[in-house]
Amino acid sequence: MGIKNFETRTNLRDKLIKRGLKADKNKLEKALINYNYFEMFNGIESLLLDNCTPKRYQGVHLRDFLHIYKFDKKFTSEVLAILNQVEERLKASVSYHFSEAYCSSLNDTMQYTNKNNYMDPKDSNPSSSTYCSFSASYPFQNEQNFPIYQYFNDFVLFKSGFLNKLTVNYEHIDDSFYQDHSYIPPNDVDTHTNLQVAVPLWVAIETLEFGKLLRFLHYLKIPVLEKIMADFGFGTGKRNQFLNMLDFLLCLRNNCAHNSLIQRFRTPNKYKINRLLIRSFKLNPINLGNLPSGLKLFDTLKILSFFADISILERHLRKIYIANIFSMGLKKGKLTNNLLLKRMGNENFREWKAVLRGQKYIL
Question: CB of 349 within 8 A of CB of 337?
Answer without folding.
Answer: yes
